[in-house]
Amino acid sequence: MTLSAKMKTLFINFQKPYPPMGGLTLRNWQNISLMMQLGEVHLITLDFKKSENDDKSSPPCLKTYQEFDLRFLRQQRSIQTKIINKLSYFTPLGHPQINWLRWGVVTTALMKFILKEKPNLIIFQDVRFYHYFQKIKTLQESCQFKVIYDAQNVEGKLFNDIYHSSERKQSLFFISKFDPSKVLPIKIKRIEQRFVREANQVWVCSENDANLMREMYGQNLSIQVVPNGINVHDYEHLRLGKCPLPENWKFIPHTIVFPATFGYQPNSVAAKLLIEEIYPRLQKIYSDSRLILVGSGPTKLMRETAKSNPNIIVTGKVPDIKPYLAAGNVMVVPLQEGGGTRLKILEAFAAGIPVVSTSKGAEGLKAQDEQHLLIRDTMEDIVEGIIQLWSDPCFAKKLADNAYKLVQFEYSWEAVGDRVKAIIFPS
């Protein structure tokens, strides 16, 4: 993809990317920051506001920023719109779980921006934004812009895996009570197939995702791997032990930390495994041990367990994850499903925190078992891995030091930025 040296990029994102908290916003803010180095960046965001007092400020250094409050838009829907939404089951690409990101006012704003600002590049962050891509294609020839679909996951496979998982009925994120069949995964796959074939380019998080995309949708796709990365400098004080703990907290040497967005089913399943199968075994051996689950959308199980066990802490959404990472001395990632590249593990690598993960949890990373982290796939082996790290601090430090070198070389913003420049301006 060859573009003008004077870049003007428009991002269309789900969720405000700044301050970045969790995998989705970390990746989005990474890509926005890297494109700022190549020219001006504009952003349109669709997000839920909890209240009128929520932060409405623009993320730093953007040329323009426009935000649409999905909560407000949904409150304004007419009865006719709600009926049409329910009937969308019977359309080729429609579904209530897809349609809630489709709004005429957003389409209008997008079209006006393109006609006025003439961006070189438009980057869509969510597969469910395909509707907007369809609308702006009518302007592509006259306005001469390229379109990138930035795929956080291979959504067609992810939604199918979640649908068939044993936990699916508990996930309000995924299953609508009006959805009697597996129609949502089918439609997501259909939309993703069209998006990746029609966009000028597709960005994926890892070679694993690139291979899977080609296997599912065709070998001739224009796919580029843009790994998830970390601004390593932001974690330096944490790695050096200079990051303060949350207010009134004391450091406890046997502390597990798992940061995640728990409204996302693969993360809530992992949290359940920590609560029910991993931590109880550890607490029998280390009575002072602590489990910290950090992030938005905690489940009912998480909240109730935290009330009954004072050594299990469920924070909910926090303004800055770093103090909570500082409170932990091992990160455990017992993921069983999901895709993309594991930003939570990269955060641990940058922070100097040793990691125990399943193979799925570390999938897509160039990290080796026993060299950068411990990869353990049964609950028993995960428990043994944690005990190994707590019993052998020298080995834990060796893993953390090797992981820090890996994240600097492969997953720093500098390394990912070089990759993005080579994609945008190929030699």
The percent range for strand residues is 5-15%
**Given the helix and strand composition, which structural class is it?**
alpha/beta
CATH architecture level-2 label of the largest domain? 3-Layer(aba) Sandwich
How much helicity do the residues have? 40-55%
For this structure, what is the CATH homologous superfamily of the largest domain? Glycogen Phosphorylase B
Please mark out the parts with pLDDT under 50 across 5 or more consecutive residues, or reply none: 169-178
Largest sheet features: 7 strands, parallel
Q: The CATH topology of the largest domain is what?
A: Rossmann fold
Number-wise, the strands total: 13
User: What is the H/E string?
Assistant: EHEEHHHHEHEHHEHEHEHEHEHEHEEHHH
- Terminal Cα separation, in Å? 10 Å
Number of helices: 17
Features:
single chain, 427 residues, alpha/beta, Rossmann fold, 2 domains, 7-stranded parallel beta sheet, 6-stranded parallel beta sheet, 17 helices, 13 strands
Account of the 3D structure:
The protein folds into 2 domains: 7-229 and 413-424, Rossmann fold (3-Layer(aba) Sandwich), CATH 3.40.50.2000; 232-410, Glycogen Phosphorylase B (Rossmann fold). Helix content is 44%, strand content 14%. The strands form 2 sheets. Strands 3-2-1-4-5-6-7 form a 7-stranded parallel beta sheet. It is of the alpha/beta class. It is globular, with a radius of gyration of 22 Å.
